Amino acid sequence: MVPRVYLVSYIFSNVGVFLYTKKEKVMDYKKLVTDALVKVLDGQIQEDKVYQLLEKPKSLELGDFAFPAFPLAKVMHKAPQTIAAEIVAQIDQTDFQKIAAVGPYVNFFLDKRNFSADILQQVIGEGTKYGNQNIGNAGNVPIDMSSPNIAKPMSMGHLRSTVIGNSIAKILQKTNYNPIKINHLGDWGTQFGKLIEAYKLWGSEEEVKADPINKLLEYYVRFHQEDVAHPELDEEARAWFKKLEDGDEEAVHLWKWFREESLKSFMKIYGILGVEFDSYNGEAFYNDKMNEVVSLLEKRHLLKESQGAQIVDLEKYDLNPALIKKTDGATLYITRDLAAAIYRKRTYDFAQSLYVVGNEQTNHFKQLKAVLNEMGESWSEDIHHIPFGLITQGGKKLSTRAGRVILLEEVLDDAIKLAEKQIAAKNPNLNNKEKVADQVGVGAVIFHDLKNERMNNFDFDLEEVVRFEGETGPYVQYSHARAMSILRKADNPELTAELTYQLEDEDSWEVITKIAAFPAVIKRAAEEYEPSVVAKYSLHLAKAFNKYYAHTKILVEDKQTLSRLALVQSVATVLNESLRLLGVQAPEEM
RNA sequence: GCGCUUGUAGCUCAGCAGGAUAGAGCGACCGCCUCCUAAGCGGUAGGUCAUCGGUUCGAUUCCGAUCAAGCGCACCA
Predict the structure, then answer these.
(1) How many whole angstroms separate alpha carbon A100 and alpha carbon A96?
(2) What's the pTM?
(3) Would the CA dihedral through A170, A172, A176, A179 be positive or negative?
(4) Which residues in range 474-503 of chain A are in contact with strand B, contact meaning CB within 7 A of any of its atoms?
(5) Which of A19, A69, A455, A579 has its CA 20 to 30 A from that of A101?
(6) Can you say how many angstroms the Cα of residue A367 is from the centroid of all Cα atoms in its chain?
(7) 3-state secondary structure of A467
């Protein structure tokens, strides 16, 4: 028999399924259904059309595949119900558990014993490698993510970019890309002019040393309050930034100090979140690379003067002009991003370059790509902005300037404290309480951020973010912990891919089909840069497993004990791997 | 005004190339721990899929218009 083990898991994918490996044809259950149908359809409809029409029924009670007879009604001049019934009467049912006509549909039920054996054997054999696939051919993918601003505390908004970027990196790695996580720190720009001006006016060294981030934020907010009545402050701030760009000693000294203090507090939060970066090259890093960008633009005669500033006209792209240099000669956001894009292409020769940045910056990235395209850099099409929705509070946009922030560190602290309380109430004898409280609290926050589509806006609600019941991270973690607990109670049985595991009951079938869908889920998540696909999937699998757990006694001795344990082991593996891809830890006990 | 994004149960959201009675979670009400972790399982109630047109045998899904919301629209990032 041909090895069917390897592609079996693709069958629930509705995306185009490859039927062939490099050399030989591999067993594919969707193909099996197609072949059976083609034999009785007598050329009324093409084979690939049949394959394409096959769908997954709404409910497992209706089978594993359904063929709708509607399209045949026209050609055969018969009612679809009649056609479905005739197909069932003639079709060869030997490879299936059952084939039945329900109204205009022909429903196929797979052979549960064969299918469960294939899937369990595969997962047990591959372990955490299950679901790995080669989409990226090891291509480099720099991911611009997190990128907090120096001298401002990290807010919930930075959490989004951080956890989405982190998860995309892990998902891309699983599909054989080589992600490079870049924290493009906001450590340059006129905001530093403002900060220095504010510090000079109202700040002191002692104050900043005592509580760096909060004091710096305070100065910054006060600056924006006062400059309404005193517009001359803006002039001063601009002057300070110009000094900074020109290397003025005092300005540089203050900048370095602010940056260092800020980075310290960021690292603490990254530690809690479990996120690491490959590069911290922020905006300042590109300070000495900007002249080249400007001269490249000049060489191509793309720069134009407009109202005293240097711009690139993008009218033919239906975009506003890109401002390269301000009237005072200082550079801007897009100038630095151009330098960064070029630097990344030269350094990493990337297959794709991603920017996990809020939805509100869509135009900026369109401009960036357009300018690069004008410069003749054809790789500009490999640049992808990965936008995400806004976090609001009371329906209003958060704004550091207006002092309306939700501090990430406080949210994480609250979540961990609530997890501690939960453990005290639910499982007071637990080992490693502190560690598990961290994992669960932080896991809840990260999962909450990733479970919905990136583009959805959400209004911040602490109770919602740190919920531990229902569709939450802790629910998935709990399901995983339950599975691990069973395996411990069974003395961690030796399950190998050489053994045959077979299950045929309804409750396990639901779990098995979910496990089988994992590789297709990874593929979709990678192609759409969408961690929520994995998060939703982990919830579905956890739910199916908990249902199974409630209805089936696993640890009883009979001839299927080992098969049930293989199922539990497979669930644990896939849940653990799903959570890992989201950047959430999976405690073995909780 | 122009552009981008979004509009599905009281709330938060799924619904993946259009197809069978539109699904979860939370909240409400009601059940289930002499048995593998009740952070769990099950049940009841709750929906003109924003509106109007078009394409189609068939539209929550595709197209267009309208309405509503959020975001953006050069010297911030």
Answers:
(1) 11
(2) 0.92
(3) negative
(4) 474-475, 478, 481-482, 484-486, 489
(5) A19
(6) 25
(7) coil
Give residue A10's pLDDT band: very low, low, confident or very high (50, 70, 90). Answer: very low
**Residue that the structure tokens 């801007």 belong to:** A332
CA-closest candidate to residue A118, choices A570, A440, A527, A471: A570
- Find the length of chain A: 590
Residue in the structure block whose two tokens are 């994918």 = A13
State how far the Cα of A231 lies from the Cα of A295, in Å rounded to an integer: 34
Per-residue buried b or exposed e for A140-162, using 16+ beta carbons within 10 Å of the residue's own CB: bbbbbbbbbbbbbbbbbbbbbbb
Signed CA dihedral, A440, A442, A445, A447: sign only:
negative
Instruction: Read off the pLDDT of residues A124-143 as tens digits, 9 standing for 90 and up.
Output: 999 999 999 999 999 999 99
* Secondary element (H or E) of residue A414: helix A408-426
Amino acid, res. A502? Q
Average pLDDT of the segment spanning A507-530: 94
Element of type H or E holding A545: helix A531-551
For residue A403, the model assigns a pLDDT of 65
Residue A84 has which token pair?
């479905």
Calculate the alpha carbon distances from A572 to A61, A157, A352, A423 in Å. 26, 32, 33, 21
Per DSSP, chain A holds a count of helices (H) and strands (E) of 22, 13
- Exposure string (b/e) for A212-226, b if CB count within 10 Å is 16 or more? bbebbbbbbbebbee
pLDDT level of residue A400 (50, 70, 90 thresholds): low
How does DSSP assign A6-67, residue by residue? TTGGGTT--S----B-SSSB---HHHHHHHHHHHHHTTSS-HHHHHHH-B--SSGGG-SEEE
Question: pLDDT-based confidence at A5, cuts 50/70/90?
Answer: very low
Residue partners of A44: CB distance under 8 A and separation at least 6: A72, A75, A76
Q: A492: helix, coil or strand?
A: coil
DSSP secondary structure code for residue A275 in this structure: -
Structure tokens at A322: 């890109």
**The two three-digit tokens of residue A112, written as one number:** 């549960």
A309-312 and A322-325 strand pairing: antiparallel
Closest CA to A30 of A45, A46, A51: A51
Separation CA A141–CA A173 (nearest Å): 10
Q: Tokens 């720009």 correspond to what residue?
A: A189
Lowest mean pLDDT among A162-176, A182-196, A275-289: A182-196
Q: Which residue is nearest to nucleotide B58 (CA to C1')?
A: A70
- Token digits of residue A367: 């401009």
A71 in contact with nucleic chain B (CB within 7 A): yes
Nucleotide nearest to A480 (CA to C1'): B37
Residues A143 and A182 sit within 8 Å (Cβ to Cβ): yes
Q: A541 CA to B9 C1', in Å?
A: 24
Measure the CA–CA gap between A342 and A437, rounded to whole angstroms.
43
Chain A residues 212-251 within 7 Å (CB) of strand B:
238
Name residue, tokens 């709708």: A68
Rg from Cα positions in chain A: 29
The model's confidence at residue A2, banded by pLDDT at 50, 70 and 90, is: very low
Closest alpha carbon to C1' of B22, residue:
A58
Which residues have C-beta within 8 Å of that of residue A281, sequence separation ≥ 6? A182, A184, A185, A340
